[in-house]
């Protein structure tokens, strides 16, 4: 009997590693703004295929960005105690496998955009460039998460175009507000979790109460989102 060749990237047991690589479970946090814009653009629910392709585009775009970020940061992740157990540093997912996931996701994103609107398709290319650019921002600015907030703010404009097929002032104005909101939420949340991580890895853990830090920064995060301040 001929031996069936084994391909690690087709192994179902490895599927969980791919999902964890891109934190697939966090995809839900990127959906509310896009779905809200979709409902507003359609004045209700659009047809089922529009909903499906918007969801596909959102998941694919995020997977592309997350996978690319993991590849770019792999050497830094090896040196950081917090990230050294991620999939690429530990060898659970190779760089080639991660790159294949990124490329496939990018193609799926562009295909989903093409299925929605031709304008969405043409805009999908610069969108991918912006999403991947974030991974390099951390190397030259401390405001990288403002860029991340901008990336999240693209979602409502994309969803609007996916439904109506054109730019309009309403989504652009709304996107400014949603981009500002996502920037504040992302920055405040990152500040919160960064504080906890620093406390837990501090050389003086006895002097750093990470629980109090979480409480204070959580209130700040909620206050910033509600009042328009970061």
Radius of gyration: 20 Å
Count of β-strands:
0
Strand content: under 5%
The biggest beta sheet reads: none
Flag low-confidence runs.
Answer: 200-207, 217-230
List the helices and strands and how they pair.
Blueprint (H helix, E strand, L loop, with lengths): L14 H7 L9 H12 L5 H25 L1 H6 L7 H4 L4 H22 L1 H20 L6 H21 L4 H33 L8 H18 L3
Helix pairs in contact: 2-3, 2-8, 3-6, 3-7, 6-7, 7-8, 8-9, 9-10
What does this structure look like?
Helices cover 73% and strands 0% of the residues. With 230 residues, it is an all-alpha fold. It contains ten helices and no strands. The termini are far apart.
Q: What key attributes describe this structure?
A:
disordered C terminus, single chain, 73% helix, 230 residues, mainly alpha
């Amino acid at each position: 009997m001929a031996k069936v060749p084994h391909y690690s990237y087709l192994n179902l047991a490895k599927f969980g590693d791919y999902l964890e690589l891109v934190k697939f479970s966090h995809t839900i946090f990127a959906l509310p703004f896009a779905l809200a814009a979709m409902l507003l653009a359609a004045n209700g629910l659009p047809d089922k295929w529009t909903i499906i392709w918007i969801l596909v585009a959102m998941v694919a775009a995020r997977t592309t960005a997350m996978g690319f970020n993991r590849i770019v940061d792999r050497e830094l992740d090896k040196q950081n105690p917090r990230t050294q157990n991620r999939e690429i540093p530990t060898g659970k997912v190779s760089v080639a496998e991660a790159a294949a996931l990124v490329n496939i996701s990018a193609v799926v994103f562009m295909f989903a955009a093409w299925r929605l609107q031709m304008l969405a398709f043409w805009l999908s290319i610069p969108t991918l460039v912006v999403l991947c650019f974030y991974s390099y921002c951390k190397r030259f600015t401390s405001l990288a998460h403002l860029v991340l907030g901008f990336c999240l703010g693209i979602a409502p404009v994309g969803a609007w175009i996916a439904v109506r097929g054109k730019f309009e002032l309403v989504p652009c104005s709304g996107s400014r507000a949603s981009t500002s909101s996502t920037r504040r939420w992302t920055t405040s949340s990152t500040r919160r979790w960064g504080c906890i991580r620093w406390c837990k890895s501090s050389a003086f853990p006895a002097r750093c109460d990470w629980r109090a830090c979480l409480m204070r920064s959580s209130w700040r995060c909620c206050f910033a989102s509600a009042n328009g301040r970061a």
